[in-house]
Write a structure and sequence with these properties.
Blueprint lengths: L2 H13 L2 H15 L1 H23 L5 H15 L2 H34 L2
Length: 114
């Protein structure tokens, strides 16, 4: 079996899954709500900035983390964003299961030779 083909098929299966449909619907609701859209866009900007610092090896200050946490607390109060976050968490559970399945051959290999 071609691994890259299997990955493409997994990507397609994810797009067709119920958790992804739930995420898409929740995201569309956020886009239709001007306040939610603005809050979510600001949060994503802060989140991306923090991730970019981490990727670049730059220190992430406590103030950066605190700002992101404060904004997360604010956006979670918006019903549409709360649904989006819940849908994202559900999809992340699916990703975690997929990752565990992908790592399993390595774990088995190492366990066999321990």
């Amino acid at each position: 079996m071609n691994v890259l083909q299997a990955i493409h098929e997994l990507s397609t299966a994810i797009r067709m899954s119920e958790p992804f449909a739930e995420l898409r619907h929740a995201y569309e609701q956020v886009q239709r709500d001007p306040i939610a859209h603005q809050l979510f866009a600001r949060f994503r900007t802060l989140q991306k900035r923090l991730q970019q610092k981490q990727i670049s090896g730059l220190p992430v200050s406590d103030a950066d983390v605190e700002l992101l946490q404060q904004h997360l607390h604010i956006i979670e109060m918006n019903e549409n964003i709360a649904r989006l976050i819940h849908a994202e968490e559900r999809l992340n559970e699916l990703f975690a299961q997929a990752m565990a399945a992908m790592i399993q051959p390595i774990e088995q290999l190492y366990d066999e030779h321990s």
